[in-house]
């Protein structure tokens, strides 16, 4: 009998679900024991359900090919097979909220890639290096749900990973005004170039709902836990534009920052390369050894060279220079479907396990 925790993937046939499955292959702590998807996929083997829609650049793991896909709506049945679940379901926000809480009420922890619960006051939204203390709200959430071990935790939007960790590393210098433009890969929409040929050689200056998330979600990461809820921070003020660009994986951000305290370039770089958190201290399996790297070359970071830094779990920063209107500007890069989606959720689950929130049933 394996000592690994049994994990279910809700929405396992979509792109983020596939990324979960590829990242969990040979994971030292977790094993995929159940895959759930829409009723039209239920009853098929995973290989049949995905068909020709496998979008990862590594082969489908042998261990999941013959798993029979379960109906995601059969909550009790799916929950009975696993210790916890990752959620990547494709539903409306209200449907996602309802189904994730339904799984939590079966005493099954839910670690979600979806946005539905990011503003539920007692649901922690975590980048594990930034705000592990937000796990404290889980106790209040369990009281609300009437559970002993079931809860929902979420990770933030993929677009903020390329600059929110950087601003966190610079907190002591009190950034108070930020302008960011993100150049976002098509995999963020669950697409490849085969699915979305009109993106080849094209830019679309609109991604629905993305700019509000990019401006507001960092403030929740930097918020404080008070009376069983997370109260978002008030600053820095962030304004953002989000643009879809013809790149498969990797979100790039061009960012301008004003500080109350005036740092030197050397101080800013020092804080970046030495920034670490609980995942590094605990040596969690998916944690990057160095969370943020600084690249001195004028033409870096580049997606072709840097998107897979630390297996896609690290952040790359470059072009840090003084600005004529703002104090400093830089370019950040993160892997949107690894650190920004499934990998970030896996790291959250590892931290939750390490802290005793996720255990064997």
TrEMBL record:
The active site is at residues 158, 251. This is Aspartate-semialdehyde dehydrogenase. GO terms for biological process: methionine biosynthetic process; threonine biosynthetic process. It comes from the Bacteria. One of its GO terms (molecular function) is aspartate-semialdehyde dehydrogenase activity. Residues 6-138 form the Semialdehyde dehydrogenase NAD-binding domain. NCBIfam families: asd_EA (TIGR00978), PRK08664.1 (NF006416). Belongs to the aspartate-semialdehyde dehydrogenase family. InterPro entries: ASADH-related (IPR051823), Asp_semi-ald_DH_pep-lack (IPR005676), NAD(P)-bd_dom_sf (IPR036291), Semialdehyde_DH_NAD-bd (IPR000534), Semialdhyde_DH_dimer_dom (IPR012280). It holds the Pfam family Semialdhyde_dh. Transmembrane segments: none annotated. Its EC number is 1.2.1.11. It comes from Gallintestinimicrobium propionicum. PANTHER family: ASPARTATE-SEMIALDEHYDE DEHYDROGENASE. Keywords: NADP, Oxidoreductase.
């Amino acid at each position: 009998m394996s000592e690994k925790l049994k994990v279910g993937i809700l929405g396992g046939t979509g792109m983020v679900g596939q990324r979960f499955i590829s990242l969990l292959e040979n994971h030292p702590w977790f094993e995929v024991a159940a895959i759930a998807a829409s009723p039209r996929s239920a009853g098929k083997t995973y290989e049949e359900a995905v068909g020709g829609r496998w979008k990862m650049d590594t082969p489908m793991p042998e261990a999941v090919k013959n798993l029979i896909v379960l109906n995601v709506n059969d909550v009790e049945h799916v929950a009975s097979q696993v210790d916890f679940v990752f959620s990547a379901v494709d539903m409306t926000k209200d449907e996602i909220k309802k189904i994730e809480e339904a799984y939590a009420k079966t005493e099954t922890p839910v670690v979600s890639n979806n946005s539905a619960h990011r503003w539920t006051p007692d649901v922690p939204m975590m980048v594990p290096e930034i705000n592990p203390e937000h796990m404290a709200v889980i106790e209040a959430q369990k009281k609300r749900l009437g559970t002993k071990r079931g809860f929902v935790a979420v990770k933030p939007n993929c677009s903020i990973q390329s600059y929110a960790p950087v601003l966190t590393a610079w907190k002591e210098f009190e950034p108070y005004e930020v302008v960011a433009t993100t150049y976002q890969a098509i995999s963020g929409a669950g697409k490849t170039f085969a699915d979305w040929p009109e993106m080849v050689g094209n830019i679309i200056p609109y991604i629905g709902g993305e700019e509000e998330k990019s401006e507001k979600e960092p403030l929740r990461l930097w918020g404080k836990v008070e009376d069983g809820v997370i109260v978002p921070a008030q600053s820095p003020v962030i304004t953002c534009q989000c643009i879809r660009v013809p790149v498969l994986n990797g979100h790039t951000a061009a960012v301008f920052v004003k500080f109350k305290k005036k740092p030197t370039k050397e101080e800013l770089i020092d804080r970046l390369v030495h920034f670490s958190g609980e995942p590094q201290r605990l040596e969690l399996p998916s944690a990057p050894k160095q969370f943020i790297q600084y690249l001195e070359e004028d033409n870096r970071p580049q997606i072709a060279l840097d998107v897979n830094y630390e297996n896609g779990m690290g952040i790359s920063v470059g072009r840090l220079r003084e600005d004529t209107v703002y104090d400093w500007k830089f370019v950040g890069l993160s892997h949107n479907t690894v650190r920004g989606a499934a990998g970030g959720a896996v790291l959250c689950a590892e931290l939750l396990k390490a802290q005793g929130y996720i255990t064997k049933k």
